[in-house]
């Protein structure tokens, strides 16, 4: 099979495709003929630059790439996307839904030294709820919306992204940690309950990766430094490492992988 046409007439819907793992997945899936709807939220100048980059990827490959600068967490925006997208994609054409939204609150749980400090904002319940919806529960809404519109392929794949921070302490990462732990649990239930539609749901746990999202975490420099020393293969994980596994999870050979947390970290999690 010509790998440039491997996914001809099939679509990927990528939530959070403007940078990091999502953008790397666009590049990789496009190489194999996948048509891609890229959903992201950027300002006017960033939007223009991203659309130019996506147009170059499209021109170099055989599939279509459709950019949608919308709020993926807004129900009306999601409904509007489904209506517009269905005209391009057609029924049962979505091979993969990738959830790569990185939107959350990075705050500590407690005030500094028990002294009120306006600059030391603490995590609120609302912060936790917003972060959990953005980085976990929104995957369920998008899955249901695509299913209701009969857009999922009968051998569709759903992929989420988690991190080691779901299982260990990282400074000011509590809200994201809660969201990632929630995503892992949600994916387990989705793997069972959505299997009736032929969907396979898996989560990728990437190693420490130098992305814009990671750099927002307090003490990220230390995470990067330790990540290199700790990794058995002596380097950080790259977005393209993860994109390669996202591609593999879309292939026929991955048909029987469902409900798994897949470590893509060069063995980092072993140490």
UniProtKB/TrEMBL annotation:
InterPro entries: NAD(P)-bd_dom_sf (IPR036291), SDR_DHRS6-like (IPR051122), SDR_fam (IPR002347). Keywords: Oxidoreductase. Pfam families: adh_short_C2 (PF13561). One of its GO terms (molecular function) is oxidoreductase activity. Belongs to the short-chain dehydrogenases/reductases (SDR) family. PANTHER family: DIHYDROANTICAPSIN 7-DEHYDROGENASE (PTHR43477). This is Short-chain dehydrogenase. It comes from Mucilaginibacter xinganensis. The lineage of its organism: Bacteria, Pseudomonadati, Bacteroidota, Sphingobacteriia, Sphingobacteriales.
């Amino acid at each position: 099979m010509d790998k440039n046409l491997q996914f001809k007439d099939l679509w990927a819907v990528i939530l959070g495709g403007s940078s990091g793992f999502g953008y790397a997945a666009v590049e990789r899936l496009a190489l194999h003929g996948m048509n891609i709807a890229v959903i992201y939220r950027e300002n006017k100048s960033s939007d223009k630059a991203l659309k130019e980059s996506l147009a170059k990827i499209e021109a170099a490959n055989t599939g279509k790439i459709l950019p949608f600068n919308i709020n993926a967490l807004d129900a009306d925006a999601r409904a509007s996307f489904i209506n517009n997208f269905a005209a391009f994609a057609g029924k049962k054409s979505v091979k993969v839904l990738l959830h790569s939204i990185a939107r959350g609150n990075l705050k500590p749980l407690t005030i500094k030294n028990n002294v009120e400090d306006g600059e030391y904002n603490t995590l609120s319940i609302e912060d936790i709820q917003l972060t959990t919806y953005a980085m976990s529960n929104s995957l369920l809404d998008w899955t249901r919306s695509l299913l209701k519109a009969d857009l999922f392929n009968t051998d569709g794949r759903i992929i989420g992204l988690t991190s080691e921070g779901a299982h260990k302490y990282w400074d000011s990462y509590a809200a994201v940690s809660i969201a990632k732990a929630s995503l892992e649990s949600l994916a387990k239930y989705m793997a069972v309950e959505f299997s009736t539609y032929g969907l396979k749901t898996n989560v990728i746990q990437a190693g420490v990766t130098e992305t814009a999202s990671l750099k927002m975490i307090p003490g990220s420099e230390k995470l990067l430094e330790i990540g290199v020393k700790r990794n058995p293969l002596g380097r950080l994980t790259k977005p393209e490492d993860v994109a390669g596994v996202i591609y593999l999870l879309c292939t026929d050979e991955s048909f029987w992988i469902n409900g798994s947390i897949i470590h893509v970290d060069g063995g980092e999690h072993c140490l």
